[in-house]
Amino acid sequence: MRVCVFCGSSPGNQPEYREIAQDLGRTLAQKGVGLVYGGADVGLMGMVANSTLEGGGEVIGVIPRTLIVRELAHHGLTDLRVVDDMQERKDVMARLSSAFVCLPGGYGTLDEMFEMVTWNQLGEHAKPCILLNINGFYDDLLTFLDKARDQGFIKGSDRDGLTVVTTIDELFEALNRVSAG
After folding, report:
1. pTM greater than 0.90
2. Which of 22, 119, 127, 136 is the most exposed place for a label (fewest CB within 10 A)?
3. What is the dihedral of CA 18, 93, 26, 65, to 10 degrees?
């Protein structure tokens, strides 16, 4: 199994975000779950990758040519795939992954996760999309999604396509439920 992790190319300004990124990487390695991510050696992205590598885990990075210098491509990965653009990045990451996990991040993180949620909604894949909501980082976003559901813009079943957890243990419980069911 490989999990695609979407997260910030910045570390954020709260230590909890860095800690969860490192803990997630260590846990992926311990459980023998491969990591697919955006290929950078900076921010939360680099922290997840480095922690997975330090634990002996497989790490596949996927990075567009234009971001190799800007995001400081990680050259110590199991596999670094250089692609032409962001759309190809998402396509390759989706193809390589069994599930998608979203940590704190900005526009790029949200773009990647919402594209995977949309593909799930449209039936292009049936892979779990899991939001790891650390310290309530995504609370306001979740309120908005509930409002969009309540006002008829997102079907209830589609809203349920984004699983929300607050700990790594809950994350793996959600992954185990999906793989068992």
Report:
1. yes
2. 136
3. -60
